[in-house]
Amino acid sequence: MNDPRRQFGSVAQTDGVAIDEGLRQYMLGVYNYMALAVAATGFVSMLLASNEALMFQIATTPLKWLAFGGIIVIGMFVAPRVIFSGSKVAAHAVFWVYAALWGLLIAPMLYSFQQTGAAMDIYRAFFISASVFGATSLYGYTTKKDLSSWGSILGITGIVLLVSLIVQTLFFQSDLMSLALSSFIVVFISAVTAYETQMIKSMYREGSSTNDRAAIFGAFALYGSFVTLFVHILNILGIMRD
Q1: Band of the pLDDT at 3, cuts 50, 70, 90?
Q2: What is the pLDDT of residues 193-224, one digit of tens each?
Q3: Domain boundaries defined on the chain
Q4: Is the pLDDT of residue 74 over 80?
Q5: Sequential DSSP letters for 61-129
Q6: CB of 169 closer than 8 Å to CB of 202
Q7: How far apart, in Å, are the Cα atoms of 50 and each of 106, 109, 234?
């Protein structure tokens, strides 16, 4: 005699497997988009850093600040609206322009390390960043703790750090303050990565109809965190070496 409870349990288990497989494919899409953006940024920054005249142009004109402003505007205001409300072509355009702007911003830093014979620090910073990012993203994906309460705290902290970074760059230019800021930013971005990963996972649960756009947005968020980690870990290695 068939037991209805056993049949129900079998159906529930099948649905659970389907959901987990869908989530796996969704997260793979997020990380694949992100990896491609990191590769694109690396290509753009290394290509620009190989041109000494262009590096001089970036260093002596407002181009670097325009790239920085573009990153802030796209990250905070443009991307969320375009990715979820605009066309898919526009969503991809914003994503790749964002990656290219990061490449432009990072290029002078890479050039400086290459010229001082510290190119190996670039690779060290990348692998350290990948390790920190991987560990914190894995925590955000697997933890049962609800990290949504971190949102407001991380938002306020991010604004304070951004203002502090601009003030340090424009007025103080102190190695000690730069080291302290970069160290704090690495800890902050580690927490942001865990928070974002759980948020991206939750977005999948909210409905499959927007999962393609959610994957692009998730990759956008995690990519920004990874590149920020890389920049500040590289800065820490440079200051410690000096």
Answers
A1: very low
A2: 999 999 999 988 776 446 678 889 999 999 99
A3: 4-241
A4: yes
A5: STHHHHHHHHHHHIIIIIHHHHHHHS-HHHHHHHHHHHHHHHHHHHHHHHHHHHHTT-HHHHHHHHHHH
A6: no
A7: 13, 12, 18
